[in-house]
Each structure stands twice: as C-alpha cells, then as structure tokens.
Amino acid sequence: MSLVRVDDVSFGYARDRRILDAVSLDITAGDTIGLVGESGSGKTTLLRLLLGLQRPASGSISFDGTPLDPGNAAFMRSFRRQVQVVFQDPYSSLDPRQTVSSIVAEPLRSLRVPGDHTQMVADALASVGLDRDAARRYPHQFSGGQRQRIAIARAIVPSPKLLLADEAVSALDLTTRTRIVDLLRRLGAGMSLVFVSHDIGVVAALCRRIVILEKGRIVEAGETVAVLANPQHPYTQRLLASVPRLKSKDTSP
Ligand SMILES: Nc1ncnc2c1ncn2[C@@H]1O[C@H](COP(=O)(O)OP(=O)(O)OP(=O)(O)O)[C@@H](O)[C@H]1O
C-alpha cells in the first residue's frame, strides 16, 4: 500500500495562477524519490503540500490511507510526527541560541513524543555520525556539513516514516555533499525519502525513482536508471542535456 498518495492535486497561491496542475504521485514505504525540475517548477510547493502546510485546491493527499484534513486533529498530530523535513540552508535552519541537544529534541517536545528524550537525541546524533559531546555545543561551533547532520538528526529523532529533503545538500562542498548523500542513503533504508534537487547526479546516486516536474506538471516519472538512460519527454531530454557529464554513481554538480 502507498504511504502517501497524491491524487490529481492542483494548487495555486493565488486563484488566477496554478502552480501545481493535476499532480498524482504514490510514495510507497521505503521508496526514494528524486523530484527534479527547473527553478519555479513547483518542487518546494509540492513538498509544502506533502507537509500539510498548504491544502490542495482540488484533488487529495492521503497518508497511510487517511486523507490529510486539518479538522482531524488527532490524525494530524500523528501525521506531523511521521513526516519530517530537512531544508537547504544549514546556517539559517538551526537556532543559534540553543544547544544542539535542545535543537534536536525540539520535535520530541513539540510533538509530545513519550520516552527518554536525552537517549533519543543521543541515538539520533550517533546515527548521523556526531558524538555525544556535540549535544552540549552550539550550531556556530560546527561546519556546514556538521550542521546539516544536526538538521538531519532533528528530522529523524521522532522516527518519521517519510523524510522530505529540499535541496538539502546544495549548499555543501562536493566532498561534504557526497558524505551527506551517503548518510541519507543509509538512513533511507528505514524511511521513505523525497529528495528535491537541481542536481541530477545526486538524484542518480540516491534515488530509486525520479519524478520530473515542468511548470507544475509531472511530465515524466519512473526508475531513475531507466529515465536517465532513455528520457522520453523533451523537457527531461533538455534537463539532461544541460548536465555536462553524468555517471550513475557520480555526485558531482
Ligand atoms: N508563498 C508564495 N506565494 C506566492 N507565490 C509563491 C510562493 N511560493 C512560491 N511561489 C511561486 O510558486 C512557483 C513555484 O515555486 P517553488 O518554490 O515551488 O518552485 P521550485 O521548483 O521549488 O523552485 P526552486 O528550485 O527555485 O526552489 C514560483 O513561481 C514561485 O514564485
């Protein structure tokens, strides 16, 4: 069964301008999906709908078989725990006045997750490769790559079923980017992942499936290897033609 089902969803921030147009997408448990498209094609907007931050103008989104509905408070609380997000900028996404431990524990507090929060934070930091000492320090004491590890720890600490990543490695240098992609690949074993990126090389390294968005419409979707080897839609062909060199394991920009 689908973990998330996006069914014929359209959306616009203003009535007269459609940003997403008849988008349908199934995300199964453990799936890794790369969402690719030019700037302004609606990738972040689709993530906002998947997070329940925006509602479709038409169509529906369901999670574990239940439609997202702000009126269903108990379901939305559980949904907020199950779907977490990592944003692009590791410098602005972490509160500089809080210790790492407090930052990573934030979803546990706000979602009122039962259990030993100190232990859960330590486990999350360990799974992203940061030692226990990191918990007592502040974000400015870490590099960009380490900060993104902290942001990933914060996202995985409530054990979500779906992790959304919006250009989560774009701000990092190449070596750090490769390490974070490896980390996401490892963590992805227990979660579904939707990974927004301009970088088709990173998507090729990380995502089993790829979805190509053009002006709010899905123009092509399928197994990443198959789509990259034999793109059918002219827009996909143009996107791939603009990538100078692409090998299946290459994570360079
Ligand atoms: N809060 C908003 N209010 C009005 N329009 C918005 C808002 N957020 C985004 N848009 C518009 O929606 C369109 C899609 O934006 P979106 O951020 O989803 O694209 P994107 O594919 O993620 O782009 P990028 O790769 O540059 O991040 C753009 O034309 C943008 O100007």
UniProtKB/TrEMBL annotation:
Principal location class: membrane
GO molecular function terms noted in the UniProt entry: ATP binding; ATP hydrolysis activity
SUPFAM superfamilies per UniProt: P-loop containing nucleoside triphosphate hydrolases
GO biological process: peptide transport; transmembrane transport
Keyword Cell division belongs to the record: no
PROSITE patterns from the UniProt entry: ABC_TRANSPORTER_1 (PS00211), ABC_TRANSPORTER_2 (PS50893)
Annotated Gene Ontology cellular component terms: plasma membrane
Annotated keywords: ATP-binding, Nucleotide-binding, Transport
Pfam family, one: ABC_tran
CDD domains: ABC_NikE_OppD_transporters
Subcellular localization: Cell inner membrane
Residue span, ABC transporter domain: 4-240
Keyword match Ubl conjugation: no
InterPro entries: AAA+_ATPase, ABC_transp_ATP-bind, ABC_transporter-like_ATP-bd, ABC_transporter-like_CS, Oligopep_ABC_C, P-loop_NTPase
Topology term for the membrane: Peripheral membrane protein
Similarity section: Belongs to the ABC transporter superfamily.
Protein name, entry field: Peptide ABC transporter ATP-binding protein
Naturally occurring in which organism (per UniProt): Devosia geojensis
